[in-house]
TrEMBL record, chain A:
Record-given protein name: Cytochrome ubiquinol oxidase subunit I
Any one GO cellular component localisation term in the record: plasma membrane
Transmembrane segments: 15-39, 51-74, 94-117, 124-145, 181-204, 216-234, 316-339, 351-371, 404-427
Family: Belongs to the cytochrome ubiquinol oxidase subunit 1 family.
Organism: Mesorhizobium jarvisii
Cellular localisation: Cell inner membrane; Cell membrane
A GO biological process held by the record: aerobic electron transport chain
Keyword terms: Cell membrane, Electron transport, Heme, Iron, Membrane, Metal-binding, Transmembrane, Transmembrane helix, Transport
Single GO molecular function: electron transfer activity
Keyword Metal-binding among UniProt keywords: yes
Keyword Transmembrane helix: yes
Membrane topology: Multi-pass membrane protein
UniProtKB/TrEMBL annotation, chain B:
Keyword vocabulary terms for this entry: Cell membrane, Membrane, Transmembrane, Transmembrane helix
GO biological process: aerobic electron transport chain
InterPro entries on file: Cyt-d_oxidase_su2
Protein name (database record): Cytochrome d ubiquinol oxidase subunit II
Any one GO MF annotation of this record: electron transfer activity
GO terms under cellular component: cytochrome complex; plasma membrane
Family affiliation: Belongs to the cytochrome ubiquinol oxidase subunit 2 family.
């Protein structure tokens, strides 16, 4: 097979596997800090139990994120040497700043956060939690800056086929960066709140009525219910930003073949790129014009304006619909759960059973969204600057195919093991309830009994 | 001589990258080594050994990300050439690092019946990663473009580097544990030391004979005089450490950290020798650091960041090591 498409699948597989875990750790760090601060304020040990259950999930997710992230730093060179050759002057410093300001911060204080509870004062432990959470968020900031620069490059000039930095502020805060960053941070918040509420619902179904379960459940459900409308608004703003800077991506997302006014909002279709039409289309008349231009006769860009220079339509169209559909489902589930928790102080069993698989809804929406935006950038690697096909390395297709197969097997096995451990941890927490042994919090180091595993 | 940035910056970055690699080899060396030693340790001992590295391994591995990152950002041309040429060994290294990295966490969280499986994966991943790094080093010193003989040499270096890491691991266990396990670690160190010395001698001899350019850098008067302390000092340190293994552990646990520091010094000396051999090339005999470097303005902005942040990183890394100083106890999430 063609090394280009194999390299793309391989990098896509790695980055998809990788993003699952930062999506959890970015927000989970702050949720852990919340548990810890609530404990500091209330002295209620249930908060600390919630902390210790979820810090294990954090540690495991962090490790998965680290190892898959190391893989990515090598793959820039093994699979895409043309990328660094052409835009290394821009991408390099952004990646370097991520490593220097974020990676080391997280890695050094993670040890203290996980294992240092009895070795440092409570204040230092809280500080370590803040630094780890801050480190993961900072890491997201740099990576989103780089990714957004690839989508909407700014602040550079081309000299002999190489990008040279002119204005670093413009490079970092390029046109799509603030929108993408907000969208991603909210996605992380939603992923974690659904994961927390989903696993807490599993404990609930298993008969666990402990205080630590309720606290985690409420935290998850209320956070989700608050974040989801904000996310829908932020996503809409991000879409309008894309319309302005990458109209061909919007054309593919809406499967709109011809530029014009009164464009319908396609709910379902099988886009056929050869025939340049949609089959089995179900659409709301004037919908797309209304959403994107706030007027029924607003002109929406069509794929006919970008012959040979637009992304593949089918995956972008469906990626976008899966993301939005999942988002709407998240809205329905989190708001009904919030209603029952607030008004009835209980959770109906069917709703709890729906919340368990919804634990992974954040992953689904995040992946679908990233596929939309990344495939939507094709055929460019850096919009208007470097085509993906021009960055691929000289490695033989057979080598890429072999390594790809091993990576895929490895990732599937690890994912199964990871999910298995999450369920195991939830069930164990459900069994222990409020009786799990707990280390006390003391100012004095080394004075506390250890927590039982 | 006037100081000019376009000349100085690639040099500074080559130095920083070398420093990152050296720190990585020493720090991740001991935790990879402990993974290798899992093969000869018993159940309870394995838990103690994990406790001795648990809070550190993540930060240790970050030095690899920094080293590759610096190669990536400061010498983008070289990054592509080296990593494309080493495609398969890099892949093997990554699989090893993935397996051991996750095994660390999984072994502590899975139901107790499955713990053995993850212990084995931890051992396997550590061995694979060490062998892959050694193989890459061997192929790199021969100039990347190698035939069957070069591959065989790569395999030899692979085993010697794994042994060197096992020695580091044993030295770390001597520092972090006590009692029976500590005595065992002394014996592990003695065995691993022989193979380490063999490996260093092999690389030291192979490098000049593989490249006439490197031969001329070493065996010319008066360079040979200035450089002679490197091999002589290394040999003396090896001998001294070998003799020490018959006296450790000492009463009151004196000198428990000495084997580790001695090994670190030996690594640093060997690394200095390699650096001298390859300077000014980043891809042996093909690309110099100036040919492979990024644009000056990009290097400058990274340098500013590095100068500000690196001391802070070193400071809090020391702090983290101090928090978990002393003998390793059971590691719990508290």
């Amino acid at each position: 097979m063609d090394p280009l498409i194999l390299s793309r699948i391989q990098f896509g597989a790695n980055i998809s596997f990788h993003i699952l875990f930062p999506t959890i750790t970015i927000a989970l760090g702050w949720v852990l800090l919340f548990f810890k601060l609530r404990y500091n304020a209330t002295n209620d040990s249930a908060w600390m139990r919630a902390y210790f259950t979820w810090v294990k999930v954090f540690a495991l997710s962090f490790a998965m994120g680290v190892v898959s992230g190391v893989t990515m730093s090598f793959q820039f060179g093994t699979n895409w040497p043309g990328y660094m050759e052409h835009v290394g002057n821009i991408a390099g410093p952004l990646l370097a700043f991520e490593i220097l300001t974020a990676f080391f911060l997280e890695a050094a204080f993670l040890g203290i956060m996980l294992f240092g509870f009895r070795r440092v004062s409570n204040r230092v432990h809280t500080l370590a939690t803040v630094l780890v959470a801050g480190g993961t968020t900072l890491s997201a900031f740099w990576i989103i800056a780089l990714n957004s620069w690839m989508q909407t490059p700014a602040g550079f000039e081309m000299i002999d086929g190489k990008a040279h930095a002119v204005d670093w502020w413009a490079i970092v805060f390029n046109p799509s960066m603030p929108y993408r960053l907000v969208h991603m941070l909210l996605a992380s918040g939603l992923t974690v709140s659904f994961l927390v509420s989903g696993l807490s619902a599993l404990r609930y179904l298993n008969g666990d009525r402990s205080e630590s379960m309720w606290k985690a459940l409420r935290t998850g459900v209320f956070t989700a219910a608050i974040l989801i409308p904000i996310q829908i608004f932020a996503g809409d703003q991000h879409g309008l930003n894309t319309l302005e800077h990458q109209p061909q991506k919007i054309a593919a997302m809406e499967a709109n073949w011809n530029t014009g006014p009164n464009v319908p909002l396609v709910l379902f279709a099988l886009p056929d790129e050869a025939a340049k039409e949609n089959r089995f289309e179900i659409a709301i008349p004037d919908g797309a014009s209304l959403v994107l231009r706030h007027s029924t006769d607003g002109v929406v860009p069509g794929l006919n304006d970008y012959p040979g220079n637009h992304p593949p339509v089918f995956p972008v169209f469906w990626g976008f619909r899966i993301m939005v559909g999942t988002g709407l489902l998240m809205l329905a589930v989190s708001w009904s759960a919030a209603f029952f928790l607030k008004r009835r102080h209980s959770l109906p069993k069917p709703l709890a059973m729906l919340m368990v698989p919804m634990a992974l809804s954040g992953w689904l929406a995040t992946l679908a969204g990233w596929y939309t935006t990344e495939i939507g950038r094709q055929p460019w690697l850096v919009t208007g600057v470097l085509k993906t096909a021009d960055a691929v390395g000289p490695v033989a297709g057979s080598h890429v195919a072999l390594t790809l197969a091993v990576y895929l097997i490895l990732y599937v096995l690890l994912l199964l093991a990871y999910l298995g451990v999450l369920v195991h941890l939830a069930l164990k927490a459900a069994k222990d309830g409020d009786s799990s042994p707990l280390p006390g919090v003391m100012k004095a180091a080394m004075s506390q009994p250890a927590a039982g595993e | 001589m006037t100081f000019d940035w376009p000349t100085a910056l690639p040099l500074i970055f080559a130095g920083l990258m070398g420093l990152a690699i050296l720190i990585y080899v020493i720090l991740d060396g001991f935790d990879l080594g402990i993974g290798i030693l899992f093969a000869v340790a018993e159940d309870g001992e394995q838990d103690t050994m994990i406790a001795a590295i648990g809070p550190f391994w993540d930060a240790n591995e970050t030095w690899l990300v920094l080293a590759v990152g610096l190669l990536l950002v400061a010498f983008p041309m070289a990054h592509g050439v080296i990593l494309s040429a080493l495609y398969i060994p890099v892949f093997v290294l990554l699989v090893g690092l993935i397996l051991r990295g996750v095994a660390f966490d999984f072994r502590a969280k899975v139901p107790s019946g499955k713990k053995h499986r993850w212990n084995r994966i931890f051992f396997l991943g550590s061995v694979i990663a060490s062998l892959a790094q050694g193989y890459m080093l061997g192929v790199y010193v021969l100039g990347l473009d190698v035939g069957l003989g070069g591959m065989a040499f790569g395999v030899l270096v692979a085993f010697c580097l794994a042994a060197a890491y096992a020695a580091m691991g044993a030295a770390w266990v001597i520092y972090k544990t006590e009692g029976e396990l500590q005595k065992k670690a002394v014996r592990w160190l003695r065995t691993a030391l022989v193979l380490t010395a063999l490996g260093m001698a092999a690389v030291s001899l192979a490098t000049p004979f593989a490249s006439p350019r490197i031969f001329d850098k070493w065996f010319v008067w008066p360079q040979i005089l200035y450089l002679s302390p490197l091999p002589i000092l290394s040999a003396l340190l090896f001998l001294w450490l070998w003799r020490q293994t018959f006296h450790l552990p000492k009463p009151d646990d004196r000198h428990a950290l000495t084997p580790f520091l001695t090994l670190a010094a030996i690594f640093a000396l060997g690394f200095a020798g390699l650096a001298w051999s390859f300077y000014p090339f980043v891809v042996p005999d093909r690309l110099t650091i100036w040919q492979a470097a990024s644009a000056t303005e990009s290097l400058a902005i990274i340098l500013v960041g590095t100068v500000v942040v690196l001391p802070i990183i070193i400071f809090y890394s020391f702090y983290a090591y101090r928090v978990f100083g002393g003998k390793a106890t059971d590691l719990t999430y508290d």
